[in-house]
Structures are given as C-alpha cells and as structure tokens.
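In response to the reviewer comment on reproducibility (Comment 2.3), we provide here a single inverse folding case reported in full, input and output, so that an independent group could reproduce the run without further information from us. The structure tokens appear first.
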C-alpha cells in the first residue's frame, strides 16, 4: 500500500554547529529516500529544522522514518514529528527544496 507522510525533524547541536547539522540531515534524508525508492521533498525551515513529505510503500516509509529519526552519524535528531498526508499521484523523484 502506498502512503505519504509529512515529517519534521528537530535537531540538536553537532559539536556546537547547528547549521552544519541541518545541512547534513537534509542530504542524509534525500539519500535515504533514494535508497528506499521514495518520492517527495525535503527542505530546511526558517527555524533550523528539516521538514518534508515522503511517499512510497508503507514498509519502506517505516524504515526511512526510523533512519531519519536516528539521523546521520555524528548528528542528533531530538524529536521527529510525523503526520499522514494524501498521496500525490504521478510524483517522481525526491527533491531538495529551497
């Protein structure tokens, strides 16, 4: 079953570098989405969080969200909020939005 989820990652400091962490999490998220063959998008928020929407098979989404919740090595995700969304038909790829 195809599902779509909105997520918001609240990050912590990485050796005192919050901005570094946000950028690192952004690219980590895109990479994990590609690995799991998900579609959607990810971007930085104005308050130094990472948000996005991911769509794909339910089991792949579950694995992806667990990985995003853990974050990349050397980084810290303090909290990951999730909310179901409507599936977007015909969506292709997973992009970083500015």
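Designed residues, in position order:
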């Amino acid at each position: 079953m195809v599902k779509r989820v909105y997520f918001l990652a609240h990050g912590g400091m990485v050796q005192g570098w919050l901005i570094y962490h946000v950028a690192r999490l952004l690219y980590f998220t895109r990479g994990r989405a590609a690995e799991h063959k998900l579609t959607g998008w990810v971007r930085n928020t104005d308050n130094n969080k990472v948000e996005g929407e991911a769509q794909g098979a339910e089991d792949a989404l579950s694995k992806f969200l667990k990985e995003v919740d853990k974050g990349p090595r050397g980084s810290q995700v303090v909290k990951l909020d999730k909310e179901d969304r409507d599936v977007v038909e015909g969506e292709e790829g997973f992009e970083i939005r500015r």
